Amino acid sequence: MPKERSLKQALVAAQKGDPAARDELIKSNLDFIARVSSQTCKKYLTWGNDDELSIAQVAFNEAIDKYRPGGGASFQGYARRVIHSRLVDYIRKESRHNHLSLTPMNPGDEELSRHDVIASTEHYQEGQQQAVLAAVVDEFINVLKQYSVTLDELVKISPKHRDSKETLQQVAHCLANEPELMEYLKKYKLLPIKKLETLTGVKRRVLEKGRKYTIALALILSEDRFYPLRDFTQLPGNRKRGA
Asked: What are phi and psi for residue 202, nearest 5 degrees?
């Protein structure tokens, strides 16, 4: 991976049509592309053998063209979301294709009934969705480690009272929708308690007690790669999209 300064220069050059700069960006990020792809597909992928990596490389190339600094996300963060999105689309299309083309193994066998096809397709799709979700959870666990938070700990410290939970959820929404505060959180791995207290009116002691819970929710709300986890947090409403 090039140094940050070189990365910015290479991005600008690639977006202006410099093929050498684009090639440099792609080659220096092949490990990153493979890692994100393997996490998304929940299996080890190798170059030259797996179509998913070719799709991911095309997605990375797309990210080079579409990335704009100042949007609250790093280039790698943006590229990760594009790769994840394209691979999920690919998995869904493959699921449909594999089961729409089902035929008897032997000419004399009866064709699968419509019910069997639907049941088989749903089972396959459920398996694929679980694999993608498992990859998202694994990635979320690794990110939480940077904030000294574990998944087991989150379960234990999750507010039991409805009012407390809703208060911290509102704080998390506020944090997720403030790019400067999210930048502070990700840079220092600390909750910007003083600014959140001013913005939300929530007492400092409440913010400190719910620090880890708030951080986890804010990460889910602010990063598209963790969007599938919203269903497990019972978060109301939607965060601002397009960030």
From this structure: -80, 135
- Look at residue 241 and tell me if it is in a domain: no
Structural domain count of the chain: 3
9 and 37 part of one domain: yes
> For residue 174, what are the domain limits?
158-232
CA distance 151 to 242: 28
* pLDDT, tens digit, 9 for 90 and up, residues 114-139: 444 444 444 444 555 566 667 778 88
> Distance between CA atoms of 231 and 146, rounded to whole angstroms?
23
End-to-end CA distance of the chain: 24
**Residue 63 and residue 17 share a domain:** yes
Measured between alpha carbons, how far is 103 from 97 in angstroms, rounded to an integer? 12
DSSP symbol at 2:
-
pLDDT digits (tens, 9 = 90+) for 200-242: 999 999 999 999 999 999 999 888 778 777 766 654 444 443 3
Q: Are residues 103 and 54 in the same domain?
A: no
Q: How many CB atoms lie within 10 A of CB 178?
A: 19
Reading the block at residue 9, the tokens are: 């220069």
Are 52 and 102 within one domain? no
Q: Is 160 exposed, middle or buried (0-12, 13-18, 19+ CB in 10 A)?
A: exposed
175 and 210 Cβ atoms separated by less than 8 Å: no
- pTM of the entire predicted model: 0.49
Picking from 78, 113, 132, the residue at the C-terminal end of a domain is: 78
Structure tokens at 242: 């397009």
